[in-house]
Amino acid sequence: MDYSATITTTAPLDRAAHAITHDLEQWWSTRIERTDTGFTTRFNNSHATFHFDPERSDTAFSWTCTDAHMIMDGVDDRAEWVGTTLLWQITGTDTGSQIQLTHRGLVPTLPCFDICMRGWQHFFETSLRDHLNGAQGAPNTT
Fold first, then answer.
1. What does the pLDDT look like over 84-122, one tens digit per residue?
2. Helix/strand number for the chain, H first, E second
3. Long-range contacts of range 19-25, CB-CB < 8 Å, 24 or more positions apart?
4. What is the DSSP string of 68-111?
5. Please, which pLDDT band fits residue 19 given cuts at 50, 70 and 90?
6. Domains in the chain, ordered, with CATH?
7. Which of 108, 121, 122, 140 has the greatest number of beta carbons closer than 10 A?
């Protein structure tokens, strides 16, 4: 089963969508290189490049990993994320919004699963949620 998690925030729908797509430096990594069609995020000597998939709306969109060089202890395949997809779904609630992230292809049989799941627990489930709720996010800075 793919990694999937949902967070709830007091941020309205449009603010949540903006934060996910435009505030990456505030919650994921301070080292983001943007292009018209995607971005590369860097962590230490690791990187992952994502392409914005064309089928999208303001509240449902996806990014496919087209290049990766992920350096993790115990993981030999540094390109494990290539071909995986981040699926974002945002829905409004009475008090803000709910965001679901599914990392399609990040499954328990991948050697990086535990490390990457902990990464998403930090960056998505905590850092993005904090950023959206008015606290400071905790992006990677190295």
1. 999 999 999 999 999 999 999 999 999 999 999 999 999
2. 4, 7
3. 19/128, 19/131, 19/132, 20/88, 20/90, 20/99, 20/128, 21/61, 23/131, 23/137, 24/139, 25/139
4. EE--BTTB--TTTTTT-EEEEEEEEETTEEEEEEEEET--TTST
5. very high
6. 3-132 (3.30.530.20)
7. 140
What's the rounded Cα separation, in Å, for the pair 62 and 112?
Answer: 21
Pairing state between β 46-52 and 38-43: antiparallel
Opening angle at CA 105, ends 99 and 109, nearest 5: 120
CA-CA distance, 38 to 29, in Å (whole number)?
15
Residue 131's DSSP bridge partners are: none
Cα separation, 109 vs 3, in Å, equals 11
Q: Is 133 left (phi over 0), alpha (psi -120 to 50) or beta?
A: alpha
